[in-house]
């Protein structure tokens, strides 16, 4: 009789353990505690101004001898510190839209808030158009 008692007690413990395990296995997936509920709002970071920007229009033309192509314009240093070095680069294209070269200019010590009048030169023949690639500096 003592053996039967132990078997019954052991069976009851096993049944309780199985019920307890089955009862909690799915509950974590379907219930969301109040503390975890958050209201999500989208916030945008303020637009960051570029360190260097092209001011106004650019002009491109061959020199009087047709030896070099000059792209002129102005670049502003929008930072609050002097830039040790600034460079502007343009891709050069022929009449069919093929890239045939580059034109570039650079300057040292562009003052904070200063405007640089650049003159980027390209030495290729047959330049029909150009496109700004990059203004970089540090």
Automatic annotation (TrEMBL):
Q: Where is the composition biased (Basic and acidic residues)?
A: 35-47
Q: Where is this region: Disordered?
A: 25-61
Keyword annotations for this protein, in alphabetical order, are: Signal
Has UniProt tagged this entry with the keyword Signal?
yes
Q: Which InterPro entries is this protein grouped with?
A: FxLYD_dom (IPR047676)
Superkingdom is Bacteria
Q: Which residues form the signal peptide?
A: 1-22
Compositionally biased spans, kind Polar residues: 25-34
Name the NCBIfam families for this protein: FxLYD_dom
In Swiss-Prot or TrEMBL terms, this protein is called: FxLYD domain-containing protein
Per the UniProt record, the source organism is Candidatus Merdibacter merdavium
Q: What is the lineage of its organism?
A: Bacteria, Bacillati, Bacillota, Erysipelotrichia, Erysipelotrichales
